[in-house]
Write a structure and sequence with these properties.
Number of strands of chain D: 6
Number of helices of chain C: 7
Strand content of chain D: under 5%
Helix content of chain C: 25-40%
Structural class of chain C: alpha+beta
Chains: A mainly alpha, B mainly alpha, C alpha+beta, D mainly alpha
CATH topology of chain D: Cytochrome C Oxidase, Chain A
CATH topology of the largest domain in chain C: Immunoglobulin-like
Largest sheet of chain D: 2 strands, antiparallel
Helix content of chain D: 55-70%
Number of domains of chain C: 2
Strand order of the largest sheet of chain D: 1-2
Oligomer: heterotetramer
Largest sheet of chain C: 5 strands, mixed
């Protein structure tokens, strides 16, 4: 019942991109100042995660229901994170 | 799902039910994954909240071993590649190659867990126990849960390998792979959170 | 049913409560009358065959949704007003204002433990951590018409500093210090209770809020412990 | 019944480890009913203590309060409304032959069963069960040294809750997949019976709300077992108890809707059937339910207005909380107007349904003072809250459920349940229930905090002791009524009059097409074909038009 329509994306090529990005994030964490590193490193992580989700997990070829199932948790994650920030952080800093 | 009920389902499915773009096995698996994303996401969210407010996080994170964890990242990514190649071959009908690639993925899982084990024992040996401080409790909590997921993923893949001897189902290979990729993505965030920054 | 209100802000809370209760009683009575009318008018013996459409008059019941929206907005406005006025502003800011205006104020720490409250007074110098600090067990003595800043804190589990008569409630959370403000305007003895499950004797975690006229409070302050010891409330302290 | 010979099954695979959704649903239903009686008896015990203090010890009182809350939510409302009615009705109403994953379904029930056993075990471990409230607030639950129960009891309690969540998640995955993928030909989303919509939205809400709490529960267990301090505070070690409250209520509020929506779904089916009128506005129901579901994710902090959250975000949460009353008022108006113009049959199912509706109006309206942030300063954690959630949750878990049981009893068991008894049952339940729940509003106004062993210790509450006594008597009578119902229920399952008619109530939805009880694989050698809207009553001069009809199929040989 697998949808046969799409051609296989270049899995091995993506793998090498992932490895290069990983090396880059390790490099960044050592080169860049520690306060400034997290945004870069996490952006790289997000790029990698997007590559895996889109190609390895075939989200690029899925219908809207499956994409919704993948996106709703991220929205929930964001809601929890941002709604909790004003409550948890100031008290932890004391 | 071996009784005759399932077979009735399979035959009748297309004829009697409203058409739906996704096969039900994969849809159900994505529903499950959707929940899993939030379980690990919730843990990571808590970690981020404490990370942003806990000044000594970076200090503690320098004690974790970047080399070992980089090797582990490599192992997981390779497992992802072999899992997706297994699925590709399954779609193309080359079932002996599927077995090979699934075997490699399971091997990657076992390697990851062994390396993690060595890492844990070194850290505990040096006195970094979970109750030491905020960083270490999150470190053990999250990597522990993640490790359990890797273990589960390995078992799923081994189970699919055994299952394939009887039935050649593309869905089974794909779902096992999906789980593996999901665990991999989670690691991509854990790695910088605890090792790099 | 509401207990007597002794605080300067309590009337606002009471007003919100009264408005919302009157509102829901009106909406409730209306809904129930429509419901009972429908049950009576459309029973099978009276109306053996269902009508093809809802009677036009009843369709107007949909307006209750709009009434609900209006009521909600009203409620939000008055409730937010009370909240902004007395609770949103951090007690620190209220304090600055009060210092500027030159009004009276006292600082107290309320520390919750299983199952008693201790109230720390800064003593004559008005600072905590000096030798003239003193503390009372389960007794909070405050002067009338003075601004009271209570820093609520807990040493073990969650408690809640609830003064029903002052319309004041705030959770005592371990690791966090929260300052709340109220101003008692009526002399007398009132109860402070715990409103967050804190263990087996939760129901017994009570203290007395004693509001004294300013002059008596000054007298009391000269020798606070002597008078406080007269209270048998210290029993709980002694037991631990 | 033509299929029977092809599926000769042993007793164990037919009644115990069954993969048939109807059997699993009945297993859930009956387990849930037993837990309801159990939870009710617990309530009777601690209410007796409130009337005459000293009946229980302090630890016992707290433990009973805790278990009563947890049981009624997790072991009664959810298994009955999702596990029971959901399992039985979803495949029947959408014309499927079974759930999408029958084995998972069986696992779900048995995980639930194990969780029930663990829960009851945890009550009787040496040192006493968990007694920190069903909200499991740390540090009370995380610090064994300050906690009054035993650590083993706490761990087992958490384990039981975790197993129950796992079981309901399995069920939820199954429900969502089944409803999406296995609708019979012609049954598009906008033709689904409202009950199915409600189950779908409830399952999605549960899936997305419980998972952060699972993350929290893992952290709490680590706190208890490994001595970490996610939620505990020790010197130099900064945990945050408020984080748990956030995670808990992020789940806790949608959870209420998880059980509320199926209950409302039952009411829609019952109201349309017995008043012979279609739903007043189908689309309003669907969309307002979706809106309410989405909003339910951003209202949670109204449980924590005075629990140290940022006052500005408290205002934001107050706004969303009050906003959520709008979709619900729309729902209730539609539900109420469904009977307008009808020809009402006062069957037990309808009487229970209408009382559930009326009680829910009270419950919903009294939510407003709790959502308004200034009033909540006073009402937070008082008996007003207790009264409010009994008017909502009791309505959901008991009144709607019993309404559903009376409605679908012939379909489930192929037998009738006595109508006269049902009417008396409805009347007594309503009277005793109001007798015990309504006075609690006044206790709340008087400032009576929740979870108090006795009110006699507080001067300003001492004069209300007679209210407690009155409430206790009503509560005990209420439980006694339900125990009588339990006997009648089981008597009717085994010895009730047989129901030959597949559609005794002349209802429209698909489940009434097949014989009662439905054969294995639900439709025998027929299959339903959907042609109409779900609720076509009083249309074109006909009393009712079924949603579909059965057509015979030629079965291919396997």
């Amino acid at each position: 019942m697998q949808k046969q329509g799409h051609r296989h994306p270049p899995y091995v090529g993506i793998y090498f991109i992932l490895l290069v990005l990983t090396a880059a994030s390790i490099l960044v964490s050592f080169v860049v100042h520690r306060e400034a590193a997290p945004p870069f490193v996490f952006t790289l992580s997000t790029v990698k995660a997007a590559l895996i989700a889109l190609f390895y997990m075939h989200l690029k070829y899925e219908g809207r229901y499956v994409i919704a199932l993948a996106l709703i948790p991220l929205i929930v994650f964001a809601v929890v994170l941002f709604a909790l920030m004003p409550d948890i952080i100031p008290y932890q800093k004391m | 799902m071996s009784s005759s009920e399932t077979r009735v389902e399979e035959i009748e499915h297309k004829e009697y039910y409203e058409s739906f773009s996704v096969p039900f096995q994969r849809f159900g698996f994505w529903v499950f994954l959707s929940g899993e994303i939030i379980i690990l996401g919730g843990l990571v969210a808590a970690a981020i909240l404490f990370r942003l407010s806990y000044p000594n996080w970076f200090e503690s994170s320098t004690y974790t071993n970047v080399i070992i964890s980089s090797i582990n990242t490599f192992v997981l990514l390779t497992g992802s590649l072999t899992a997706v190649l297994a699925h590709k071959n399954a779609v193309d009908g080359k079932w002996d190659k599927v077995q090979l690639f699934l075997g490699l993925t399971a091997l990657a899982g076992l390697t990851f867990i062994s390396i993690k084990f060595i890492e844990y024992s070194r850290e505990i040996h040096h006195g970094f126990v979970p109750s030491k401080d905020v960083f270490w409790m999150f470190y053990y909590g999250i990597t522990g849960i993640h490790g359990a997921h890797v273990l589960a993923g390995t078992f799923i893949i081994l189970g699919v390998m055994l299952f394939l001897k009887k039935k050649k189902l593309v869905e089974a290979v794909e779902n096992a792979g999906l789980y593996w990729h999901f665990v991999d993505i989670v690691w991509l965030y854990i790695f910088p959170l605890f090792y790099l920054t | 049913m509401l207990p007597v209100d002794i605080s300067s802000h309590g009337y606002l809370v009471d007003r919100v409560i009264k408005i919302v209760l009157i509102g829901i009683v009106i909406i409730g009575i209306f809904s129930f009358s429509v419901l009972i009318y429908m049950l009576w008018a459309f029973r099978r013996t009276k109306n053996p065959n269902p009508l093809p459409d809802v009677p036009p008059l009843l369709k107007k019941v949909v307006l209750i949704d709009y009434a609900m929206i209006v009521f909600d907005i009203l409620l939000l406005v008055i409730s937010s007003y009370a909240w902004i006025f007395f609770f949103v502003r951090p007690a620190d800011k209220i304090k600055q204002e009060i210092v500027r205006k030159g009004e009276n104020y006292i600082d107290v720490k309320a520390i919750g433990r299983q199952y008693f409250w201790t109230f720390h007074y800064p003593g004559k110098d008005g600072k905590f951590g000096t030798s003239d600090d003193f503390k009372l067990g389960n007794l909070l003595v405050v002067p009338q018409n003075s601004n009271i800043f209570v820093e609520v804190e807990s040493k073990d589990v969650l408690h809640s500093f609830f003064v029903p008569s002052a319309r004041m409630k705030y959770d005592a959370i371990p690791g966090r210090k929260t300052r709340v403000w109220f101003k008692p305007v009526q002399v007398g003895e009132y109860e402070i209770v715990c409103a967050e499950l804190c263990g087996a004797m939760h129901y017994n975690m009570k203290a007395i809020l004693k509001v004294l006229p300013p002059q008596e409070y000054e007298d009391w302050l000269k020798n606070p412990l002597k008078i406080a010891k007269g209270q048998d409330l210290f029993d709980t302290l002694v037991r631990r | 019944m033509t299929e029977e010979h092809a599926h000769e099954q042993s007793f164990i695979s037919k009644y115990v480890f069954s993969k048939d959704h109807k059997t699993i649903g009945k297993q859930y239903l009956i387990t849930g009913i037993f837990m309801a009686i159990f939870g009710g008896v617990l309530a009777g015990l601690f209410r007796t203590n409130l009337a005459s203090p000293g009946f229980l010890t302090h630890e016992q009182y707290n433990a009973l309060v805790t278990y009563h809350g947890a049981i009624m939510f997790f072991w009664v409302a959810m298994p009955i409304l999702l596990g029971g009615f959901g399992n039985i009705l979803i495949p029947l109403m959408i014309g499927a032959r079974d759930m999408a994953f029958p084995t998972l379904n069986m696992l779900s029930y048995w995980t639930f069963f194990v969780s029930t056993v663990v829960l009851i075990l945890s009550m009787f471990v040496p040192g006493g069960g968990f007694s920190g409230g069903w909200t499991i607030y740390p540090p009370l639950s995380a610090n064994p040294e300050v906690f009054m129960g035993s650590q083993l009891g706490t761990v087992l309690f958490l384990l039981a809750v975790a197993l129950e969540f796992a079981s309901m998640l399995m069920g939820g995955v199954n429900f969502i997949t089944t409803i999406f993928v296995m609708r019979v030909k012609g049954l598009s989303f906008m033709k689904l019976p409202i009950f199915i919509w409600m189950e779908l939205i409830a399952s999605l809400l549960f899936l997305f709300s419980v998972t952060p709490l699972i993350a929290g529960a893992i952290m709490l267990l680590l706190d208890i077992l490994l001595g970490t301090h996610f939620f505990r505070v020790e010197a130099q070690k900064v945990g945050d108890p408020v984080l748990w409250q956030h995670l808990f209520w992020f789940f806790g509020h949608p959870e209420v809707y998880v059980i509320l929506f199926p209950a409302l779904g039952i009411l829609y089916e019952v109201f349309t059937t017995y008043s012979r009128r279609p739903v007043f506005s189908y689309k309003t129901v669907v969309y307002s339910t979706i809106v309410a579901g989405v909003l339910s994710f951003i209202v949670w902090a109204h449980h924590q207005f005075v629990a140290g959250i940022n006052p500005i975000s408290a205002m934001a949460f107050s706004l969303t909380t009050i906003l959520i009353s709008i979709p619900f008022s729309m729902q209730l108006v539609v539900l109420g107007l469904t009977i307008a113009g009808g020809s009402i049959r006062f069957t037990p199912a309808f009487i229970f349904g209408i009382s559930a509706f009326a009680m829910f109006v009270i419950g919903g309206l009294t939510g407003l003072p709790l959502g308004a942030v200034a009033a909540d300063i006073y009402f937070h954690d008082t008996y007003f809250v207790v009264a409010h959630f009994h008017y909502t949750v009791f309505t959901i878990a008991v009144l709607s459920t019993i309404s559903g049981i009376y409605h679908w009893f012939p379909k489930m068991f192929g037998r009738k349940i006595n109508e006269t008894f049902g009417k008396i049952h409805a009347f007594l339940t309503l009277v005793f229930y109001n007798g015990f729940a309504f006075p609690a509003f006044f206790l709340g106004l008087a400032g009576h905090p929740r979870r108090y062993y006795t009110a006699l210790e507080l001067g300003y509450l001492r004069k209300y002791q007679w209210v407690h006594e009155f409430m206790t008597i009503s509560a005990i009578l209420l439980i006694a009524t339900q125990i009588v119902f339990l006997f009648v229920f089981f008597y009717s399952i085994f010895a009730g009059k047989e129901e030959k008619e597949p559609n005794p109530w002349k209802s429209t939805t698909l489940e009434w097409l097949t014989p009662s009880p439905p054969p294995h694989l639900n439709w025998g050698s027929y299959v339903p074909v959907v042609e109409n809207e779900p609720y076509e009553y009083a249309k074109n001069g006909r009393d009712f038009i079924p949603q579909g009809r059965l057509v015979e199929i030629k079965k291919k040989e396997v």
